[in-house]
Amino acid sequence: xxxxxxxxxxxxxxxxxxxxxxxxxxxxxxxxxxxxxxxxxxxxxxxxxxxxxxxxxxxxxxxxxxxxxxxxxxxxxxxxxxxxxxxxxxxxxxxxxxxxxxxxxxxxxxxxxxxxxxxxxxxxxxxxxxxxxxxxxxxxxxxxxxxxxxxxxxxxxxxxxxxxxxxxxxxxxxxxxxxxxxxxxxxxxxxxxxxxxxxxxxxxxxxxxxxxxxxxxxxxxxxxxxxxxxxxxxxxxxxxxxxxxxxxxxxxxxxxxxxxxxxxxxxxxxxxxxxxxxxxxxxxxxxxxxxxxxxxxxxxxxxxxx
Length: 306
Description:
Blueprint: E1 2-7, H1 14-27, E2 30-38, H2 47-68, E3 77-84, H3 88-98, E4 101-107, H4 121-129, E5 134-137, E6 151-155, H5 162-175, E7 179-187, H6 199-225, E8 235-241, H7 244-249, E9 257-262, H8 276-284, E10 289-292, H9 294-301
Parallel strand pairs: 1-2, 1-4, 2-3, 4-5, 6-7, 6-9, 7-8, 9-10
Antiparallel strand pairs: 5-10
Helix pairs in contact: 3-4, 5-6, 5-9
C-alpha cells in the first residue's frame, strides 16, 4: 500500500510532496511520486515525435528528482513516470491502481492564495473520477521536521453519509492517540430587516439555528461513541460567520491538523463528488483537506486509515 502524489512535469509541486510525506509518515506507508505525460499528441508518430516524447520524459524525470529531494529521510519514497494515451487525470488513476494507492495527493491550483485551496481542471476532474480519497494541499504547505498528524477534524454537514465518516475518523483518532473533533461550518443567515422582522426576533431565530447545528453535531458524536471508543479529547466545534472566511476562521487550526470531509450524496456511489457546501469548505480551508468518496466511508467505519 502506498501514498501517491501526482505532480506536473516542469512545475513545482512542493506542497503536494510535503503533504504526501506527512500522510506517508503518519500512516507508515511508502510514498510514490508520479509524473504523468500524455502520449496522444502528436497524432502522426515519427522520429520527431519520439524526440518530443523523450524531451517530455526527461523533463518529468528532472521534476521528480527535485520532488524526491524534498522527502524527509525517514519516509520511504520512489518516483515513476507514467505515459498515458488519454489524459493526465486517467494516468494518475492508473498509477493509483497499479501501486496500491490508499490516498491520492494533489496540490492546490497556482491561482490559490497562499495557505488556501483552489481546484484546477485536473484536480476538479480527479474529484469526479478518483476511486480513493483525494488529499489536497493548501498552496505553500510545508512539513515540519518530525511532524505527524496530530488532530483529525471531521466536517459535519448533516448528511446521511457523514455518520460513517465520523465513526471511522473517531476510530482512527482513538487508535492512533490523536485529538478528534467534529466541526460544523455555516454562514450566518442574512438580516431579516427587509421583511420587517425586529432585531430581537432575528437574534432569537439565529440562536435557535445555532443550537440546532450544535445539537445535531453532538448527536453525531454521541452516536459514534456507542459504536467505538472515542479519543479523550473528542469535542464539537461550530464555525459560523458572516461569510465563509469568517466561518472557517472561527475554528482554531494548528500545525498537524487535517480536515476530513465526505463527498456529496449526488453522483455515482463510488466516486468523489463535491456539493456546493463541501466545495466552499474546501476552498476556504487553511489546512490540508481529505475528501472521502461515499464508498470509502464504510471502510472508515470499519477502522480504515486517514
